[in-house]
């Protein structure tokens, strides 16, 4: 009986690293949990990849939604809570990061979209200007919380007020899954069609 219990303990200790490993996804050295909870809703990691600028890794990003989806339209139109999680892989000035995000949103907008999101884009840019610096290892989340809006979190702390317009969060998602994505390989990773380099 004692030997059987000892053998079981050894087997469990050997299996545990594999069980733990299976619950995260690696993207450029950054780990993403395969599930998350936003506003009491359980979400799944749809995909994670790396944003490159030239040959340099800038950040790893993961998308959490309520059910797996493999098209931009399905992701954007899906109801319920959502999360974009960004893990910085190099030091970036907050203002520069905010500018890059807002410019990427504008590249994927129609004039009609722009009129509905201009207020949110301004607020979003200001949040990053206020952050001042996004060092390597820092964690940024932008959650869509139904009934509240888009809330930015920097290293777990709320940054700025929620941006209420749902059109803003759709514009945010198009940074990575729009017709002119920030990184083609990252778009593919989010859609389950490959991994970022």
Automatic annotation (TrEMBL):
InterPro entries: Chalcone_isomerase, Chalcone_isomerase_3-sand, Chalcone_isomerase_sf. Keywords: Signal. Residues 26-192 form the Chalcone isomerase domain. Residues 1-22 form the signal peptide. GO terms for molecular function: intramolecular lyase activity. Pfam families: Chalcone_3. This is Chalcone isomerase domain-containing protein. It comes from Inhella crocodyli.
């Amino acid at each position: 009986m004692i030997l059987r219990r000892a053998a079981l303990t050894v087997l469990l200790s050997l299996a545990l690293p594999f069980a733990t490993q299976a619950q995260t996804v690696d993207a450029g050295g950054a780990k993403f949990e395969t599930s998350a909870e936003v506003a009491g809703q359980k979400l799944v990691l749809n995909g994670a990849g790396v944003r490159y600028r030239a040959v340099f890794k800038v950040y790893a990003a993961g998308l959490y939604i309520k059910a797996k989806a493999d098209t931009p339209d399905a992701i954007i139109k899906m109801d319920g809570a959502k999360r974009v999680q960004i893990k910085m892989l190099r030091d970036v000035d907050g203002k520069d990061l905010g500018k890059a995000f807002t410019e990427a949103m504008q590249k994927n907008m129609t004039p009609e979209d722009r009129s509905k999101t201009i207020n949110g884009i301004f607020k979003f840019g200001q949040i990053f200007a206020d952050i001042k610096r996004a060092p390597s290892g820092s964690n940024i989340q932008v959650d869509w919380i139904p009934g509240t809006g888009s809330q930015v979190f920097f290293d777990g702390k709320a940054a700025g007020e929620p941006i209420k317009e749902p059109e803003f969060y759709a514009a945010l998602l198009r940074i990575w899954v729009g017709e002119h994505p920030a990184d083609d390989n990252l778009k593919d990773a989010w859609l389950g069609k490959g991994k970022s380099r």
